[in-house]
Specification:
This protein has helices spanning about 5-10, 25-30, 55-60, 75-85, 100-110, 120-125, 130-150, 160-175, 235-255, 260-275; strands spanning about 20, 40, 45-50, 65-70, 90-95, 115, 185-190, 210-215, 215-220, 220, 225-230, 285-290, 295-300, 315, 320, 325-330, 330-335, 340-345. The chain is α+β, with helices and mostly antiparallel strands. It has 2 domains: about 5-125, Creatine Amidinohydrolase, Chain A, domain 1, CATH 3.40.350.10; about 130-345, Creatine Amidinohydrolase (Alpha-Beta Complex), CATH 3.90.230. The strands form 6 sheets. A 6-stranded mixed beta sheet has the order 4-3-2-1-5-6, sandwiched between helices. Strands 7-8-11 form a 3-stranded antiparallel beta sheet, covered by helices on one side. A 3-stranded antiparallel beta sheet has the order 14-17-18. Strand 9 (about 215-220) and strand 10 (about 220) form a beta hairpin.
Length: about 350
């Protein structure tokens, strides 16, 4: 699966003659393959250029483009300039959201075209997933959910956060994941107030929450989920906060559909937590898009004015974090549709007491 045609169709709107993609995500989105190469897209032709480490696989996988290998005396700059000359390229778009200053300086000095910032064009295309991309993300989600099922009987007093994170990683790989979408977050007890806490050697104790945020990749695309479970009987306040976070998530999901601004989705969830008296303890945004990368746009936070496109895949993850005491976060992933959204997360989210 590739997106050469979709990118080529957008060149005119940005006043570009061609597009150069150099990031891992941009390369994979365009060509359906990542081999530390570069992608060039013009209306008449697309090209994928890589080195000897990846050329055999690239020629097997990449379709809809010429596939060339760099050689001594005919490296990337030479081949890019050959492509530019072949298509009379004067304005060449590049991923300004990703390219380093050093690389930009090199390309600006050596390439025979004007470099035009155009990373947003590709990011906008990536924001609306097609059916193939969504299917990859669903498959990744099912793998993560199998790992969640496996971890529940493993969690008990004395097991450490790090051990839980390691087992989640092992099981997602065992069940077919390509790699983690991100390093798993596993926090327990007072560490639960750290939304992005790092798993440590703290042993799980009776009467506390364990929050696990994890996901894997399948077909290059990410899954992402968070579940908070109780080990032993939770306190009345812990149960109350859990129910409040779950109600906030459901309110956000109910407000989610294509055409709605991210800030309005965030507000629908945030109002529930504020009404429950815990507003100051929900500091991050309600959700973010994900796809080839775990954080993409558009976002469902209090600042994002972007209307959600059809096919956006967005996390739904409100939380409450009480410093030094405990935290709760519940995360699903939904697909934006014209008349609502589709929750692709099937794992149970009523409070689980182990």
């Amino acid at each position: 699966m590739n997106h050469f045609k979709q990118i080529a169709a957008g060149l005119g709107r940005y006043g570009l003659d061609a597009m150069l993609l150099t990031s891992e995500a941009g390369e994979f989105y365009a060509a359906g393959f990542h081999g530390e190469g570069v992608v060039l897209i013009a209306p008449e032709e697309s090209a994928y250029i890589t080195d000897s480490r990846y050329i055999e696989k690239a020629r097997e996988v990449v379709s809809g483009a010429t596939v060339d290998m760099v050689e001594r005396g005919r490296g990337y700059l030479v081949q890019i300039n050959e492509f530019l000359a072949r298509h009379g390229v004067r304005k060449l778009g590049f991923e300004d959201n990703d390219m380093s200053v050093r690389t930009h300086r090199l390309y600006a000095e050596q390439l025979h075209a004007q470099l035009v910032p155009a990373g947003q064009m590709v990011l906008d295309l990536r924001g609306a997933k097609d059916a193939f991309e969504i299917d990859c993300m669903i498959r990744a989600q099912r793998i993560a959910e199998r790992a969640f099922d496996e971890i529940l009987p493993f969690i008990r007093p004395g097991v450490t956060e790090r051990e839980i994170a390691a087992k989640l990683t092992y099981d997602m790989l065992r069940f077919g994941g390509e790699k983690n979408s991100f390093d798993p977050i596993v926090v327990s007890g007072p560490n639960g107030s750290l939304p992005h806490g790092v798993p440590g050697d703290r042993p799980i104790q009776t009467g506390e929450f364990v929050t696990m945020d994890f996901g894997c990749k399948w077909g290059g695309y990410c899954s992402d989920m968070t579940r908070t479970v109780a080990v032993g009987r939770p306190t009345e306040e812990m149960t109350q906060v859990y129910g409040l976070v779950l109600a906030a998530q459901r309110a956000g999901i109910a407000a989610s559909r294509a055409g709605v601004r991210g800030r309005d989705i965030d507000a629908a969830a945030r109002q529930v937590i504020e009404a429950g008296g815990y507003g100051p303890f929900f500091g991050h945004g309600y959700g973010h898009s994900l796809g080839l990368e775990i954080h993409e746009g558009p976002n469902a936070n209090s600042r994002d004015e972007t209307p959600m496109p059809v096919g956006a895949v967005v996390s739904a993850e409100p939380g409450v974090y009480l410093p030094g005491r405990f935290g709760v976060r519940i995360e699903d992933v939904v697909v934006m549709e014209r008349d609502g959204c589709r929750d692709i997360t099937l794992a149970p989210k009523e409070l689980i007491i182990l």
